[in-house]
Amino acid sequence: MDKEWFKDWFNTSYYHTLYKHRDESEAHRFIDHLCAYLKVKKGSKILDLACGKGRHALHLAKKGYQTTGVDLSEESINKAKEHAIENANFEVHDMRKTFIEKEFDYVFNLFTSFGYFEADEENLKVLKAAAANLKSEGIFVLDFLNVKKVIPNLIANEDKTIDGINFIINRTFNGKQIIKEILVNDGHQKHQFKEVVSALELVALEKMANSSGLHIINIFGNYKLQDFNSQNSDRLILLMQAEQK
């Protein structure tokens, strides 16, 4: 398995085409609920880890927060910069590394932008870097999938055509990771990509958080911030607080 699959897939235009119909209004409502719950003050500094094209970071900036979006994909960051506004800054950065130590009031990692690495140690680096980026007692929000619901309900095969490009998608679970193999048929061109997410349950994430200087202060099960239920919830949203520094 290609351990660096994300460098190819996230940096291609096909990734943006496949996910172009993501629900922007749902994303904005989630951000609004989250900021209201956290009582985020105007001018707060927020780091959006693995920000993609910046849809969340831009919405946060419009709400009056000093927002920085970082992503490993240069393609995504270039797209984000096309729409950059005041209060929004975008940089190419590997989320496994500290961006700016003790700089941010909040760090957000949203819409399953975690668990990309085959080795648990690499995923742990993301949490440690997130904690390092936070000011004393700052808040890290990890929005992850609920694997206990996702795995039994995996859609094994999917075939869709978007903008004349055909995507054939196969999903499997290998006992540790959820793997999405994507065959792209674009005219006479064929490409193969994959997405891999570690199937991390709450107990594993809690252990990783504790090893990173973070402790879980609340858990939600959907974008309305309702209680988490391991069997029924669509999401696993963890609010973690950094240790006093």
What is the strand and helix layout of this fold?
Layout: H1 5-9, H2 13-18, H3 24-38, E1 45-49, H4 55-62, E2 66-71, H5 74-82, E3 88-92, E4 104-109, H6 120-133, E5 134-145, H7 147-150, E6 157-162, E7 165-173, E8 177-186, E9 189-198, H8 202-210, E10 214-220, E11 235-242
Parallel strand pairs: 1-2, 1-4, 2-3, 4-5
Antiparallel strand pairs: 5-11, 6-7, 7-8, 8-9, 10-11
Q: What do you see in this structure?
A:
The chain is of the alpha/beta class. It has two domains: 5-146 and 200-242, Rossmann fold, CATH 3.40.50; 150-195, no CATH class. The chain contains eight helices and eleven strands. The protein has helices at 5-9, 13-18, 24-38, 55-62, 74-82, 120-133, 147-150, 202-210, and strands at 45-49, 66-71, 88-92, 104-109, 134-145, 157-162, 165-173, 177-186, 189-198, 214-220, 235-242. The strands form two sheets. The chain has a seven-stranded mixed sheet, sandwiched between helices. The chain has a four-stranded antiparallel sheet with strand order 6-7-8-9. The N and C termini lie far apart (39 Å). The relative contact order is 0.15. The mean pLDDT is 93.
CA-based shape = globular
- CATH fold type of the largest domain: Rossmann fold
| Structural class computed from helices and strand pairing | alpha/beta
DSSP helical segment count: 8
